[in-house]
Amino acid sequence: MKSSVIVFPGSNCDRDIAVALEKLQFKNQMVWHKDTSLPKSDLIVIPGGFSFGDYLRSGAIAGKSLIIDEVIKAANSGCLILGICNGFQILTETGLLKGTLLRNKNLRFINRDVNIKVMNNKTKFSSKYELNQVLKINIAHNEGNYFTSNQHLEELKKDNLIAFKYCDEKGNTNEKSNPNGALENIAGIYNSKKNILGMMPHPERMIDDIISNTDGVNLFSSLLN
């Protein structure tokens, strides 16, 4: 399976996701933000980090990069798109995903492992997980507080487009298990066709027991499957 990782000035998780993809036997290429064409790809990843220093607002400048037009074309043609952390923010800036990521409720940067629950395991990103399976995944963000309109929230629920929710170790979703104030504990969402996933947690950091755990592996093995 062929993958491409988009690299922006300020990206700091592009190499992490490349290592994860290559470990899982993806044939990966790195694509610079000023490029105007994409290699043939089954999966395009927009990685985490602080693209363009998060000036203006997170993802705003990256969302206008030259390569983004090609990403949008690929997404509209059905290519799988994964946006992680800053990548999720960029996807909302481009309009490929609805909603926005606001400042964390405590107005502080958060970097720690949290629990998230799999809300839909019937997608190409999640088929290797069990429904309601609880994962421990790292988060590292200042703007992870997902917000959207009431109408879109109802669409997310009705069409089963909520990918993950923040929870506790037992799978309970409540204010206490919500690290950043995200609407209804939402940690990740799909688009209506479910070929685009945006998520704030970093699955690429959870692929090896030596440094963390392997709770992120099945996201990538689902894509391969």
CATH class: Alpha Beta
Query: Helix content range of the residues, please?
Result: 10-25%
Described by strand count, sense and barrel closure, the largest sheet is:
9 strands, mixed
Q: Report Rg.
A: 16 Å
Low-pLDDT residue spans: none
Number of helices: 5
Distance between the termini: 10 Å
Provide the succession of SSEs: EHEEHEHEEEEHEEEH
The overall strand count is 11
* Spatial ordering of strands, largest sheet: 2-1-3-4-11-10-9-6-7
How many discrete structural domains? Answer: 1
Q: Which homologous superfamily in CATH is the superfamily? A: Class I glutamine amidotransferase (GATase) domain
Oligomeric state of this protein: single chain
Question: Could you please describe the fold and organization of this structure?
Answer:
By secondary structure, the protein is of the alpha/beta class. The protein has one domain: Rossmann fold, CATH 3.40.50.880. 21% of the residues lie in helices and 26% in strands. A nine-stranded mixed beta sheet has the order 2-1-3-4-11-10-9-6-7, sandwiched between helices. Strands 5-8 form a two-stranded antiparallel ribbon. Helix 2 (66-76) links the parallel strand 3 (43-46) and strand 4. The chain is globular and about 45 Å long. The mean pLDDT is 97.
